[in-house]
């Protein structure tokens, strides 16, 4: 079945550092890929998405590129802020907005 | 424009009891999905409702059941609660337009209901 694997956390960085959170997936066909963010005590917010190979999703300074050849969708940001501290989830969906499959999440803490 | 709303926010139940959680989708959305998020884990898909019918189901026992109403709101029912059912239950909404076959790629999540089973 479909699955998503994220780099294990937690991840702790200093403000303005470069961020990479790795995500790889296993899926049949051509899934859509997503990054969701969960702030403490809240539900999930869609951060960015890519629906086909080589698409780059971007939002709020975060970027991720759909790499079919390496089955990856790594999340990057050039300069993180304290407000980026949250749990980040990589997810896939094999038919549009149907049934999201999530990774285990990566907790990110940014220190001032 | 109201987003996805869920009630109640928190709930404490005893083993063996039954619980009902409620969800109202984002305006303009007609599809509701439910997810269970155990502490420290990613959300797990329970089921999805569209046109008042269960369309997809994840690997959850029959103790988990649901309903969708004509106004697109939805309920999640869990019978014979177990300690392992303690989790954050998330509702997500999306839309599907049969004419043209357009389905949104995004699911919008509510804040969740924290269920504790003692």
Count up the helices of chain A. Answer: 0
Distance between the termini of chain B: 37 Å
Radius of gyration of chain B: 14 Å
- The helicity of chain B comes to under 10%
Which whole number gives the mean pLDDT of chain B? 92
User: Given the C-alpha coordinates, what overall shape of chain B results?
Assistant: globular
Biggest interface goes to:
A-B, 25 and 28 residues
* Beta-strand residue fraction of chain A: over 45%
Oligomer: heterodimer
Largest sheet geometry of chain B: 7 strands, mixed
Low-confidence stretches of chain A: none
Low-confidence stretches of chain B: none
Number of strands of chain A: 12
Give the ordered list of helices and strands of chain B.
EEEEEEEEEEEEE
> What is the radius of gyration of chain A computed over CA atoms, rounded to a whole number of angstroms?
13 Å
Mean pLDDT of chain A: 93
Q: DSSP helix count of chain B?
A: 0
Helical residues, percent of chain A? under 10%
Number of strands of chain B: 13
